[in-house]
Amino acid sequence: MSDITKKIVQGVLEIHFNRPEKKNAITESMYKELAEAFIDARIDDEVKVVLIAGQKSCFTAGNDLADFMQNPPKDDDAAVFRFLMTVADFPKPIIAAVNGAAVGIGTTLLLHCDLVFCGENAKFQMPFVNLGLVPEFGSSYLLPLRVGHAKAAEWLLTGKTFDSHEAKLAGLINEVYSDETFFSAAFQHAQTLA
Questions:
Q1: Are 97 and 187 in contact (CB under 8 A)?
Q2: What range does the domain containing 62 cover?
Q3: How far apart are CA 66 and CA 103, in angstroms?
Q4: Integer Rg of the chain from CA
Q5: Count of domains forming the chain
Q6: Which residue in 30, 153, 171, 181 sits closest to 113, CA to CA?
Q7: Nearest-CA neighbor of 140 among 116, 111, 102, 120?
């Protein structure tokens, strides 16, 4: 079974993180699959919208740090960079359905999504300061544009965890649904766009 699953349903490409035993922590091979899925979707006329999700209990805990240390990106063609560049320049709508942990790339990815819907139990964190890392995926530029300087500074400079209601109030996400309905709500929005 793949750590990334994909299927097209009524014009919507569903991409799911599928590594629940590791809280969907993203490996180099997962970045490769994600990049390929977005590259293919870009030119596939059947795909009108991309919907990215995890499972009910976890979106993604971010990068798998052990895998990242063993397989660091060596050049601009690394899988992680191909994924980041493809998503940043993606011409079709991207929707995220988030619940549980959305850590690091799990939060910064949302800045590149057109619509974001989450469940009550979504928890967001950008722990770059705690790891001694520079924020990724253009987040130090994009986050203040989305939520304002004060809230962006609070989240980026403290690495604090925040919930779905704080995320909605700040404007990071569009809507909060119950843990049982967040994915179906996101899929309905995706179908409407498709």
A1: yes
A2: 4-193
A3: 16
A4: 15
A5: 1
A6: 171
A7: 111
Q: What is the pLDDT along the chain (194 residues), one digit of tens a residue?
A: 799 999 999 999 999 999 999 999 999 999 999 999 999 999 999 999 999 999 889 999 999 989 988 988 888 889 999 999 999 999 999 999 999 999 999 999 999 999 999 999 999 999 999 988 889 999 999 999 999 999 999 999 999 999 999 999 999 999 999 999 999 999 999 999 99
Asked if 79 contacts 122 with a C-beta cutoff of 8 angstroms, the reply is: no
In angstroms, the CA 39 to CA 119 distance is 28
Q: What is the domain-level CATH number for residue 75?
A: 3.90.226.10
Map residue 120 onto helix, strand or coil: coil
